[in-house]
Design goal:
Largest sheet: 3 strands, antiparallel
Low-confidence stretches: none
Shape: elongated
Mean pLDDT: 76
Distance between the termini: 52 Å
Strand content: 5-15%
Helix content: 40-55%
Oligomer: single chain
Radius of gyration: 22 Å
Structural class: alpha+beta
Length: 99
């Protein structure tokens, strides 16, 4: 199976980090040292943005009766079941929203 472009980038990024941000390593692998250095500086932001965007698509709205409903595009879609050991259930119990 052929790797996709993100897998190739991630492998190159990891190797660049492993070799200590080395200019000779970049030159030997026909990669731009400047571009790889830039990738190092924005990688944490990129990871955070990807993580947040995933959560944004899967958001829910808390309803006063203690339940949650999924929301997409401002429209409420369906009631959600929260796992009994979830921190949300414990927090709601502490606040007196669940028996």
């Amino acid at each position: 199976m052929m790797p996709n472009i993100l897998q190739l980038f991630h492998a190159a990024y990891n190797a660049f980090m492993q070799y200590g941000h080395s200019f000779p390593w970049c030159k030997g692998h026909a990669l731009s040292f400047r571009a790889m250095s830039r990738a190092v500086s924005i990688w944490p932001q990129l990871k955070q943005q990807c993580l947040v965007s995933r959560y944004w698509r899967n958001r829910a709205r808390w309803i006063a009766d203690g339940t949650y409903q999924s929301v997409r595009g401002g429209k409420v879609f369906q009631a959600l079941n929260i796992h009994p050991n979830s921190m949300f259930i414990r927090k709601c119990k502490l606040l007196g929203h669940f028996p």
